[in-house]
Design brief:
Helices cover 23% and strands 25% of the residues. With 190 residues, it is an alpha/beta fold. The strands form two sheets. The protein has a seven-stranded mixed β-sheet with strand order 3-1-2-4-5-6-7. Helix 3 (78-90) runs parallel beside helix 4 (108-116). The chain is globular. It starts with a strand and ends with a helix. Bound molecules: iron/sulfur cluster.
Length: 190
């Protein structure tokens, strides 16, 4: 079981990877980058448990390409995440991992999850290197690794930006993606 903040079905290649995917925000991050847009996900308290079986059912019911693991920091739950990633890969589905760690910092189950993922987007968010016109990354120091498998020849498409708006049942608006000044302005509209 992993502990998550929330999950949603997405189809936005620029932000979350190819195809139709289950985007999972894991609960808790021990890294605490300056300028992180998800500080509400730093606490490890109060998450919702999610099992491999539940994830596999959502993937099958919605004919998804795979999952995208977002933070919080997914590798802070690597011990529980590893079996889920193994199950997904053994069903020929894909895993995209967003992590604040770089490879030389990790070992053990963290490294196993990293190595099993099809695409890894890695590194701290650095406010001074912020760039909203990159695919997957929020700052220029972050690196993307394509591993062997379905996305081994995947080419990044930098040079434009994307954001995704969600309207909740009670009319509340949420935005995911890169907050340009235009989008930030739009968010102020009531
Ligand atoms: S690793 Fe991600 S979630 Fe954690 S502080 Fe950095 S940007 Fe925020």
């Amino acid at each position: 079981m992993i502990s998550i903040q929330r999950m949603m079905l997405v189809e936005n290649e620029h932000l979350y990877g190819p195809g139709k995917r289950l985007l999972i925000y894991l609960k808790g991050c021990s890294i605490h980058c300056e300028g992180c847009i998800n500080p509400h996900l730093w606490s490890f308290e109060g998450g919702t448990p999610l099992s491999s079986e539940e994830i596999m059912k959502i993937i099958a019911d919605n004919d998804l390409d795979g999952i995208t693991l977002h933070g919080g920091e997914p590798l802070d739950q690597a011990d529980d995440l590893l079996q889920i990633v193994k199950d997904i890969k053994s069903n020929n589905k894909t895993v995209i991992l967003f992590t604040g760690y770089i490879k030389k910092e990790i070992s053990g189950n963290r490294l196993k999850v990293w190595n099993l993922a099809d695409i890894v987007v890695a590194g701290r968010f650095k406010l001074k290197k912020r760039n909203v016109y990159l695919q997957f990354r929020g700052s220029t120091n972050q690196k993307v690794y394509m591993h062997k498998g379905k996305y081994k020849d995947y080419k990044l498409k930098d040079g434009y930006t994307a954001a995704m708006f969600t309207i909740g049942e009670n009319g509340e608006m949420d935005v995911n993606g890169f907050l340009t000044e235009d989008i930030a302005e739009l968010m102020k509209i009531k």
